[in-house]
Amino acid sequence: MEIVMVIILFIIIMILKVFEPNIKGYIGESQVNSVLAKIDEYEVLHDIMLKTETGTTQIDHVLIGRKGVFVIETKNYDGWIFGDEKSKYWTQTIYKKKSRFFNPIRQNYGHVKAIEKIIDEKYKDSLHSVIVFGYRCKLKKLTVITPVIYLNDLKKFILKFGNDIKLTSEDIRYVYTTLSNANITDKKLRRDHVKMVKAKSRENR
Length: 205
Prior knowledge:
Layout lengths: L1 H35 L6 E10 L2 E11 L2 E8 L3 E6 L4 E6 L2 E6 L1 H13 L10 E7 L3 E7 L4 E3 L3 H7 L8 H14 L4 H17 L2
């Protein structure tokens, strides 16, 4: 009986280990969803997939309001985070173990460019990239221009954001509708995109 329990426990641990990145990602995006839902007078799109010249790209959140269009990339990591604006990879350090991950600023730059190709050119200056990290990490040494903030600062950042360009209610409706219509919902295409992202992640380790 004890052997059976040990085997079952081992299987559970292995399953959790395999799906841990997906679980963490889902939790992080859910936490951001909750924060964005509390910001009044903004339209929100979550988990949208758009066509690009090389395939598809998946965007965590797009917040649309009078102050602009905020393209938000979510990272729910542990440990200390190091990085700069232009490097290809950033570093995550947990005790003495270091691992690298693709620079989220560069990643989100691709998201912004994908949106630029879909909406009218006059909205280009209204697009703002924001990188949001969860509660469990420490942003130790970042040399960046693009906003990289903690989740608990997100609402305050949006509300205090200063921008001379103001979107009208018609502008907001246009951007929201255009992105909604361009969003890829086909399940197979979404599965293919996830496989492609995982393959690239393995190559970059």
